[in-house]
Amino acid sequence: MDEMAEQLTERLAVDLDDGFTELVRIHATAVRAFLFRVCGSAAEADDLGQDTFLRAYTALQSYSPERRRALRPRAWLMTIAANVWRNHVRTSVRRPVAATAAEDTCLTWPDQRPGPEERASTSEDRGRLVAALIQLPESPRVAVVLRHVVGLSYAEIAEAQGCPVGTVKAQVSRGIGSLRVLLETKDPPPREVLK
Whole-prediction pTM value? Predict the structure, then answer.
């Protein structure tokens, strides 16, 4: 665990409210970016992000100070965010469509600086990338977003997903390969081809 994470977990152990405020400040952008990439809707990502932090706070209230000190905050939050998204998908009557995703790319991002997670140079390219991500099956989509948007290590993703590191590497590789196929064609193949 790096020094910043240790300081954060110590704050959570000593003063939950103060530590949680810092947790949100540090990780809210990454949680939102993950949720936006897996669901494709900025409004849904905001709602699911609030639910993620509400569940995190509720869980932290029941944790002992020792357990709060032992947390790996980023991986722990991404686990909660992935579970919130999965629960949302299970209970939704419809999945987001590509048209909604393209409309949401016009909204303002909290961080306007280009970064490694934002390879596309125009809003049209970003819209295509979001639409392609939405077409991926759940496992590779979550793995690709956690790795290349959020920036988690393979070990952190494995922890968040509850699977071996080798499985995560295979999911990321399969997801990137499917994204290449989707982005190289004007008419993307049906979702069944990507499974």
Answer: 0.66
